[in-house]
Amino acid sequence: MTARRSQELIALSPKPSTGLPLDETLKIARQIGEALEAAHEHGVIHRDLKPSNIKITPDGVVKVLDFGLAKALSKDSAAGDLSISPTLSLAATRAGVILGTAAYMSPEQAKGKPVDKRTDIWAFGCVLYEMLTGRRAFEGEDISETLAAILRAEPDWNALPEATPAAIHKLLRRCLEKDRKERTPDIAVARFELKDALTAPRIEPGAATGFATPKSSTFTPPAVVILMFEGFRSR
């Protein structure tokens, strides 16, 4: 059995319009967070996190791929030149490829402003939302509409599954703050929230209070971050 990308898992879900099962989503998201944390600790911003860059092996290990657009976490390298943004630097000419990247861009990235690790946290929120709901947080018929949604619209929070813990609702809202000063400042914060959500007992929706059997998660394998740099060397 070969490894699958996270977007394939969403498509193969028994109910693709409602995303992946909650426990599976939280385990995958936690590992994505671990991988981003490892990259950030090495001074690297991914800048193009999206489902097609996330690979899940048959034994449940998550690998974050395609760091070809990564950049060092420094003021000099954070210059916001839209001409080298993920959307516009891709050689692909197919609209679907370009749009797929645009949908996960942070507001500051879409505006061509300087970026830091919080741009990855935004993309992480987009991916988590999509795994939970089976739909993108920000959509449009073309790139212009997609970027406009990122800059001005809010995700459909009502699309989140009923069983989504309140802490995950709060985490998503903080990850998808348009003002990055109000955004979750570090991916480690998200990882801790996900860990708590995975280990906390949960009651099934519709179950009678006091009679439901709490659910807890099982072991989550560590994530793997594959640093594929093009001319980049850690300092």
Mean pLDDT: 77
Major sheet: 4 strands, mixed
Strand order of the largest sheet: 1-3-4-6
Radius of gyration: 17 Å
Q: Which regions have little confidence, pLDDT < 50, spanning 5+ residues?
A: 74-84, 87-100, 208-219, 225-235
**Sequence of secondary-structure elements:** EHHEEEEHHHHHHHE
Distance between the termini: 38 Å
Q: Please state the overall shape, judged from the principal axes of the Cα atoms.
A: globular
Alpha-beta content class: mainly alpha
Strand content: 5-15%
Measured as a percent range, the helix fraction is 25-40%
Number of strands: 6
Helical stretch count? Answer: 9
Description:
The chain has 235 residues and is mainly α. The chain is 39% helix and 6% strand. The protein contains nine helices and six strands. It has helices spanning 6-11, 22-41, 86-89, 95-102, 107-110, 118-133, 143-152, 166-175, 187-199; strands at 4-5, 44-45, 54-56, 62-64, 71-72, 224-225. The strands form two sheets. It has a four-stranded mixed sheet. A two-stranded antiparallel sheet has the order 2-5. A hairpin with a 5-residue loop joins strand 3 and strand 4 (62-64). Helix 2 packs antiparallel against helix 9 (187-199). Mean pLDDT is 77; it is low at 74-84, 87-100, 208-219 and 225-235.
